[in-house]
Amino acid sequence: MVVAAAAVVVAEPKRQFVYGLHAVAALVARAPERVLELWLAAARDDQRMRRLDEAARAVGLRVIAAAPGALGKLVGDVAHQGAVAAVRPLPLWSDDELLAAVERASAGGKGADPPFLLVLDGITDPHNLGACLRTADAAGVHALVIPRDRSATLDGVVRKVAAGAAESVPVASVTNLARTLDGLKERGVWVVGTDGAAEQSLFTADLERSLALVLGAEGDGMRRLTRERCDFLVKIPMSGQVESLNVSVAAGVALFEARRQRL
């Protein structure tokens, strides 16, 4: 699936903070043009920090040596690891841009990789969203789809947990998730929801197709209108005493089963 640059479609702050060595290094490597300012802790002098410093300077970024306590004033009491960048917000795909990308992928012809999407309905914990985004990148997902009104936003927490995946996996923030799922189905994408009460096992389902895999929030699951749009539901077989998995763990199991079938 070909990924193209997309315009920002919702009002965003003029800058956001990204922190953590891995997240900042990924940003410098993949999208240095989006970095407005970069601070590295002057007191930290190890191999990882030196590599980040060298990479930033190599692409023309000015590195500001931060005094003790200065980074905490920028981002608060978080594990910044001595690296903070002020960046332009990530561009989010609109409904139309998502559907256009799916159409291009579907028209790719013989041998083209069919669309592979992850849809998260009601994931409001930024740690879970970041972990799902990281897993989506590892599994080869083409885009992540979230509702605009019931989801965590792509803030610094999400991007740190995602460990660079936010720079490589497009995110579509859609106004009406049910309507977007209808649009995907009209373009030949099968919408498959995960539900612990489903009759069919994930491991017997056919996932080697144009696919939008839908996960809901732990406990609440998918909303009714989202569930009604699913072509079928699958469950992850459970052997222990717990009733459900954390959504990011469930996403990993489901996405890599789809990936296994595609291989």
In total, how many domains does the architecture comprise? 2
Structural class: alpha/beta
Topology, number of strands: 11
Low-confidence stretches: 2-12
Task: Kindly estimate the percentage of residues that lie in beta strands according to DSSP.
Answer: 15-25%
**Mean pLDDT across all amino acids:** 89
The strand order across the widest sheet is: 7-6-5-10-8-11-9
Give, in order, the helices and strands.
EHEHEHEHEHEHEHEEEHEH
Helical run tally: 9
Distance between the termini: 16 Å
What's the CATH architecture name of the largest domain?
Answer: 3-Layer(aba) Sandwich
**Which overall shape is indicated by the principal axes computed on the Cα atoms?**
elongated
CATH homologous superfamily heading of the largest domain: SPOUT methyltransferase, trefoil knot domain
